[in-house]
């Protein structure tokens, strides 16, 4: 079917995917159409991890890369992590864009920990076979068109207790033990 420009200003004859890549960008969109999602990238961790260190370390499998189409676009970062740990254990999580931490809270003095988000485990009775969930959402403004890597680091911040990702603290009772997955998702947003 030939491409036709009709008298009403409409165009017919263009099939889905008929425009070359890059021909439509944020500048060619009509005013007021901000908030569109241009691309989505995700990393999912289905295996388990453990830590008893109060120093932040990368979480294997929870890193994702994205290249923004425009330096004015934003990146919506969301994370969901399933954790468990010793009774009264605390887990701190830091989200980074390349080497820059984002969404950090402001800690006070002493040994307080700056984190993007955190969790606490209180295991009493059958609760030691379950999981807690830590979540995070942040609209980042990287001002970049270079490839960016977003990742999650974590630390177990109390008395060197071991904390776990995607598995319960106690796995002795198969009837109760819950194993899950964790993820980090990044979405490029036209503001």
Q: Mind sketching the topology for me?
A:
Blueprint: E1 4-5, E2 11-12, E3 37-45, E4 49-51, E5 57-66, E6 74-85, E7 89-97, E8 100-102, E9 117-121, E10 132-140, E11 148-156, E12 163-165, E13 182-189
Antiparallel strand pairs: 1-2, 3-13, 4-12, 5-11, 6-10, 6-12, 6-13, 7-8, 7-9, 7-11
What does this structure look like?
By secondary structure, the protein is mainly β. The protein is elongated and about 75 Å long. It has strands at 4-5, 11-12, 37-45, 49-51, 57-66, 74-85, 89-97, 100-102, 117-121, 132-140, 148-156, 163-165, 182-189. Strands 3, 4, 6, 10, 12 and 13 form a 6-stranded antiparallel sheet that branches. The model has no long low-confidence stretch (mean pLDDT 86). It has a single domain, classed as Jelly Rolls, CATH 2.60.120.1340. The chain has no helices and 13 strands.
